What we know:
Blueprint: H1 5-13, H2 17-25, H3 33-39, E1 45-53, E2 57-59, E3 61-62, E4 69-70, H4 73-88, E5 96-100, E6 105-109, H5 111-119, E7 124-131
Parallel strand pairs: 2-6, 3-4, 5-7
Antiparallel strand pairs: 1-7, 5-6
Helix pairs in contact: 1-2, 4-5
Amino acid sequence: MEFTLSEAIEFSRQGSIEAWVHLFLCSEAGHNRAFADGLKQQKRHWVGPVQIEFQHLRPCCGPSEGMEYQVSQSSWEWDMEIFRQHLNRGWAPPPLIAENRGDHLSVRDGNHRLEALKRAGFSLYWVIIWDNESPENLEKWRRGANDL
Length: 148
């Protein structure tokens, strides 16, 4: 697998987006097995990938004070340069993975991708969203699902 947007869309069409998320997170590309293990702790409800405007996304990782997962500015900028180079070569990043928090989405995987996309001039991107309570809680985010 290459963990592309088109792969994620195909998994979603087959009703297997959660499987794609776990495969991605446990791969060398996703490199986030601990997050995958945490997601398996309870039943989750999924939608996506759907295109979401960045104004609805809240990062949880970055160099800013108060981030849940704060990283150094130098490390962050190093990563941004690598992502910039990839984007300039035509790379289409895998979808972001976010948790529904009611009035916004908390980006739980893809914070670096989100920032790189913002810096490249994007204002929306593909997101896979989960909710811990009910699939009905995802309805307001499902709007873009018809574009798949």
